[in-house]
Amino acid sequence: MKKRIAVYGAGAMGTVLGAFLTAGGLEVDLISRNENHVEGLKKSGAIIECTAVEKEIKIPVKALMPEEMTGKYDVVFLMTKQRENVRTLTFLQDYLAEDGVVCTTQNGLPEESVASVLGYEKTYGAAVTFGAKFVGGGKVALTSAPKAMSIRVGGYFNDNSRAEELKEILLAGRVLSGNENFAEVTDNLAGARWSKLAVNGAFSGLSVVTGLTFGEIAKKKKTRKVALGLLREAILAAKAHGVQPEKMQGYELEQLFGKGSWFRDVKANFLLPIAIKNHAMLRSGMLADVQKGKKCEIDFICGVVATMAKKAGVEAPLSEKVVELVHGIENGLYEISYENMNFFEI
User: Fold this and answer.
1) Based on the domain organization, do 260 and 306 belong to the same domain?
2) pLDDT the model gives residue 282
């Protein structure tokens, strides 16, 4: 494939994706503003510690600082933080081919901010189901099991004509992951987005609030109960906006975790730890940001659920509480602690 491909925002997730695509035989530029990380990638390649399977892999990659970019790209996978989307996309416009597209893999509902700069035809999105932790100096930790990695890609208010091309590019990732279904096309991008948002809302925010891994959240009684409540709030908000959430790695979220009979609730409590087992070691990237004294993206995850729920006349008190607590932690009002679960009335 002779397309010029870039991963813009080669942090934890971006380094993993760029390295996996490179290992699958593609020429990919991994672009980051972190000079130390870029130098490490140039010197030693991408070093990926696969914590779920206890092995380390090294992949030679092409890494660049933004100021080292030249020419035009056919496909750019956008993997930066959402806060800077308009400024980032304005910069990237000069490096995008006339018929080039940007595929955002960011969490939440990021496509509208991309389209506001590039237009709908150039805007694609991908819901990514794996987690990673940034180490630096060319090294990251993949905290999900490689075989559990998958990506669903689709167009945002366009004819989806480039989705198959993006799928073929992303399928290069199956070589290292071992998952033949590493990439799939969806004609329901909104549904894929909301399913990912529901899971992120349930686990990423609570990871910041408590400091726990996703697996620990699913096992402990109170965090599991709150996580299920957060999942349900996102599902209700999605459906209130006419969106049917898609399956996540074969699981029908509404069917498994939607509130219903006593038996259904018991079943949901039993299934949640099983559903998250391939990502049990994952801690939220937002937790790492907060621990470094940075502002995290909680407003683009639980905050989006709360906002969209309110617009549709649906209540989302748990999502609102998570946003409140995370901002409180950011501002020094609370410590990261399991004791914060006492703030939830459930």
Assistant:
1) yes
2) 84
Task: Tell me the one-letter amino acid at 91.
Answer: F
Q: Which helix (H) or strand (E) holds 49?
A: strand 46-50
Beta-bridge partners for 142: 50, 132
Residue 172 shares a structural domain with residue 41: yes
Spatial contact of 48 and 141, defined as CB atoms under 8 Å apart: yes
Please give the Cα distance from 205 to 208 (Å, whole number). Answer: 5
pLDDT digits 0-9 by tens, 63-113: 999 999 999 999 999 999 998 999 999 999 999 999 999 999 999 999 999
Report pLDDT digits (tens) over 141-153.
999 999 999 999 9
∠ CA 133-38-42, nearest 5°, is 115
Number of domains forming the structure of the chain: 2
Token reading at 106: 């960011």
221-229: long-range pairs with CB below 8 Å, 24+: 222/341, 222/344, 222/346, 223/338, 223/341, 224/269, 224/272, 224/273, 225/269, 225/346, 226/318, 226/341, 226/344, 226/346, 227/202, 227/203, 227/272, 228/202, 228/257, 228/268, 228/269, 228/272, 229/318, 229/346
The CATH number covering residue 176 comes to 3.40.50.720
Are 340 and 334 spatial neighbours (Cβ–Cβ below 8 Å)?
yes
Angle among Cα 146, 10, 94 to the nearest 5 degrees reads 135
Three-class DSSP category at 119 = coil
Q: What CATH number does residue 264 fall under?
A: 1.10.1040.10
Does 195 lie in the same domain as 77? no
